[in-house]
Structure formats: C-alpha cells, structure tokens
Amino acid sequence: MEQLPPAAHPSATRVLATPAILKRVLELLCRDRADLWACCRVSTLWRDMAHPLIVQRLDVPFRAGDIPLHWFKALDRYHPNRVRTLRLYDNDIQTIYLGAGPTGDSLELRSWRADAEKTEFAEDQVDPRLKEVNDTLTCITNADATTKIELLFGIMSSRQLGKVLVHHPVVLRNISSIFVVCDFVRDVDHPNVRFERVARQNEEGFPVWLEDLTTLLQEICVAQRGRRRLKEVRIETPAIVNITIKPAELDDVKTLFALLPDFLEVFSLHASERQIKPAGIKAVLALQFSKLRSFTFRWKWPEAAEAGVMALSAWLDDFLVRHPQIEALHIETGDEILDLKQTFPHLMSLTLSKTTAHTLGSFLRRHPGLKSVHVQKLETPADFDAWMTEWKSLPNITSWRIHHRILSKLLSYGAPINMASTRVRRLGEWTSPAAYMGPAFPTVTFLALNIDGEGLSSVLVQLGSAFHCARYPNLCELHLTVKVAESFSEVWRPEDAAECLQKVFLGLESAIKLRALSLNLWPSRALPKDSRLNEMALSLPPALEYLEWRASRWGETDTYRVLKEEWRNGRWNRRFLRHTSRSHISAVSGESTVWLDPARPVLDHTCNPPILSHFIPT
C-alpha cells in the first residue's frame, strides 16, 4: 500500500496528495483541458498527473498561415505513448464549415494557398506549407501503435494530403476516421486551370473530383490490410458556387466506394446532383456494411420527375432493409417522402427532410427507444389537435427539432423534452402566449432558435422576456441564430460586434443557469482580441462558462471559455473571456471514435444537471 502523508496535514491536503485519489479527481476534469492546465500550476505532483490526461487526445489544426508544431515537438516531453486519439484537421475548412455548414446546396470557398492569385508554376510543385505538414506527421511516427488518428480536410485537398501521407505508413495504418468537406481540386493541384475560366465555360471543368480521394483511400486500405482501424467515412461536398466540377462517372463512383471496408460503422454522403449522377447514387446504395451504426444521406433527384423520385425511394428502402442495426438515421432528399416501413430495434436518432404526420406517427410507435427526432417539413392533418394528443404516448423522445407550432404543442402537453430546436420568422411566434399555453417549461435545458424574418435590433430588445428564468428555470444552453441583415455597417467592426455581444449578455442576465451560449448574428464580424474584449467590462450571465461566436458571412467561428479571478478572501474578483480552440465543435468521441455533429451542443443534456459532452481543448 502507498505511504500516506503524515496525519498532521489537513485532511484535504492528505487526500489530494495521494496519487490514486488525485488521478481520479483529475480524470473527472479531463473534459475541459483549461481546468487541467490550471491544475498543472499547483505543484509538481499535480502537473505529473495532469499532463498525461491533457495529451491523451490532441487536436492539431493545419492553418492557412502556419502549423503549430509545438504540439508535436512537446510529445517527447509528454511521452508519445500516452496519446490515444490524434485529430488532424484543416482549420480553414472547419471554420467555413461551422459558419455556413454543408447544410445548403452551395458554398463559396477560398484557396488554402497564401498566394492564391499566383497560378503560373510547375505542375509538380507542392504548396510549400505541406513541408510543415510533413514535419508534423514525422513527429506522429513516435506515437504509440494504438493511437487513433482522425482526418478532416477539404481546402487542403486529398491530392495534396495524399502526397504527404504516402511517406508516412504509420499514420496511414492508424487512421480511424476520415471527414472530407468540399474536397475539390484546387489551383495548387492543377495550376493550368483557372477558376474564372471554368466558371464561365462549363465544358472545361475540373478533372473528376473523386479520383484523388480514391487514390488516398487506396493508400489507407493498403496500409491497414487486416487491421480494421477505419471505422468512419464522411464525404460532404455541396456544390461550390465559384467553380464548376465535372460530375463523377459511374465507374469512378464504384471504384471509390468499393474501397470502403465492410466493418464501417459510420457512413455519411452529402453531394450535389451535379457531382454524382443517379446511376452513381444507385451504386452507393447497393453497398452493405455489417456493422453500420450511423447513416447520413443528403442528395436529391436532379429533376422533379415522379419516376426518378420513386426510384430513389426504392433504392433507399432496399439499403435500409439490409441494415436493421442502424442506431442513427439521417436522410434528406428534398421534398421526397419515404415510406419508412422498416423497423430498427436499436434506433435512437432520426432526421428526415419531409414526411407526413401519419407516416411519422406510425414509425415512432414502432421505435419506443427513439431519443431524438428532427423533421424539416411535416405535413399535418386537418384534425391537428386530435392528432397531437396521440404523441403523449411517446415519453422517451427528449430531443425534438420540428416546426415551432408542433414543438410548442408538445411542450404545452407536458412532454418531457430536454432539447428543443425550431425555426421561426419572428421571435414573437415562439414567445407569444398562444405559442406557449403555459407559464414555464422546467424540463428544457437546451434551446436552439433560428430566426430568419426579423432584424437583429428587434430581437435584442426581446431577449430578457423570451429566455427569462421564470419561463425556462433550467435552461443551460442556448443557440441563437438571426439571419436578417438590417445593415451591413451595423456590426461591421470588431468593436461593434463586442457591443452587440454586450447587449445579448444584458438581455440574458435573468437566465441564471445558462452555462453555454452559441450566437450566429448576421452580419456580425469576429470579436476583438481578448485584451480589448475584456476591457469593455462585459456583464456576463451569472453561470456562463462557454461562448461560441459565429461570423458566418465572413467564414469565422470563435469559441471562448469564461475564467474567474479569485480574491484572497475567497470572493470572485472578476470574470473574463479567453479565446480557445474551435476544434471542440466537431470533436471525436473518445469512446466510439465517431465524429460529433458540428451543431451538437457543448453539454450532454441526458444528464441532470448537464455535463460537458466531450473534450473542450485549450
């Protein structure tokens, strides 16, 4: 047994000086590495205990300007065999992805190159910053053989990344997740083709966009032969508005997706009909995965032809019949309505673009284990109130994202909803007495509102009453989006954005339990530097811990941690914001190595009270 400190020491000091107990206490803090870094400053013992927890999961961004090699150069000090999950992500694509997101049909991107205007250089020339990527990956070879590696890339394309990864077989062998966002061929890959000319002359187009991704995936499969490490593949490529890409041919689609392993657990495909033709989609939906747990499909038929819509529905039905083990199902196919006659014994999450009330009700009754339901468009019957009363028998669904009229009815009926998400034209549609039918909703801990018909100045003056603790006594997390730009000069400067944030904070003073806040207020710019921001003496909501500020129009997303300074007498002197990494929004679950939804809340609302749902890095 370990030797305990002398009994003369205070009891708390003796307990925390016992390594086994201290390690357990620090493990409870490891979801937020800002707290672990603070623990490192307490003593040598605390630092030795906290450092392994900090580095067991590393998030390393590839920025357009530089790559922070200090993360990897420090591995020798922190022992590389302690790294369990290593995430390499394209910071530029993640910033734009979080801001606009591939939830629409188009997205405008910028070049990853610092000298994007320069297009005249040798065909075999590689972006000079890829040498830094190579140096970073060289450090990874010192990591333990069991380290799981996740990749998120897009603006830095698969062609460029493949040129580097081919020289690092250790990295290829350990890749467990690939998330490809807008992976199109850049000018750095094919310098002889200019964007402007391609945009005007569709017949020139880029080379087939799947070829380079296929080559990269082939390298990974060869390196992992027999290891069964790759568990997740997400390909999300909405149409790019500033370039034109040739549609992928059927043979190219078959070649790429035939490489996906049978044991794949997470598969996501989001493509424009201009990128993958119907024959290619049919080939994709003919695949079968023995261990598939999560399936996401976003694609719609190029033309509103009834025969085509029926064909797509049949292909999806066949795919779902072959995969009854699915736990999360997300299908968005435009205005098509699926039959949904299948039964999934383990289904917990459902997302549909459109369905009828009858179809959805029948499906929900067959799946009592469902926890989350998201329906973009729901066709309701004439006897709406009578139909809604049937949903009282669905007590297990705690997360709803649906039309505000239906959501407000569910809340008024006393449905035990923890997470509520909806879209409204005006904030008054959600906060009016007619919409609520009751004084308070104590079960709601997460609320996401998307307001697309009312200006920012009008919304700001309503915040105090809309989210008052008397109405939401247990609200812990709020996501608020306002997408009506009254004036582009309204919050043009960073200082204006900070003043807008101050108005939000003042309006939410009565939300006494609010711990996490995400704001997407068009057309706001990014906030100023931390020093300038905190000089403005922001009046923070009393319980706020995490802030996310999205400047979507500018492709910028920033996250902040609320820190506290303590007086010697034990009272808080002040609370201030500190900018942190934004990688936590698309973090990888340490248990399942599955990418989390970019819109996923910071807090886990299945717990009471809610706790952090995943690591928040510093």
Give a short synopsis of this structure:
With 618 residues, the protein is an alpha/beta fold. A hairpin with a 6-residue loop joins strand 21 (603-604) and strand 22.
Structure characterization notes:
With 618 residues, the protein is of the alpha/beta class. Among the domains are: 1-62, no CATH class; 66-108 and 126-299, Leucine-rich repeat, LRR (right-handed beta-alpha superhelix) (Alpha-Beta Horseshoe), CATH 3.80.10. The protein has an 18-stranded mixed β-sheet. A two-stranded parallel ribbon has the order 3-7. α18 links the parallel β13 (399-401) and β14. α12 packs parallel to α13 (250-257). The longest helix has 16 residues, at 306-321. It is globular. It starts with 10 loop residues before the first helix and ends in a 6-residue tail after the last strand. Mean pLDDT is 74; it is low at 64-68, 98-125, 185-207, 433-438 and 583-598.
Supply the CATH class of the domain at 66-108 and 126-299: Alpha Beta
How would you sum up the global shape? Answer: globular
Rg to the nearest angstrom? 25 Å
CATH architecture of the domain at 66-108 and 126-299: Alpha-Beta Horseshoe
Major sheet: size, sense and barrel closure?
Answer: 18 strands, mixed
Q: Report the end-to-end length measured between terminal Cα atoms.
A: 36 Å
Structural class: alpha/beta
Helix fraction bin: 25-40%
Quickly count the helices.
Answer: 24
CATH level-3 fold name of the domain at 66-108 and 126-299:
Leucine-rich repeat, LRR (right-handed beta-alpha superhelix)
Average of pLDDT: 74
Kindly state the number of beta strands.
Answer: 22
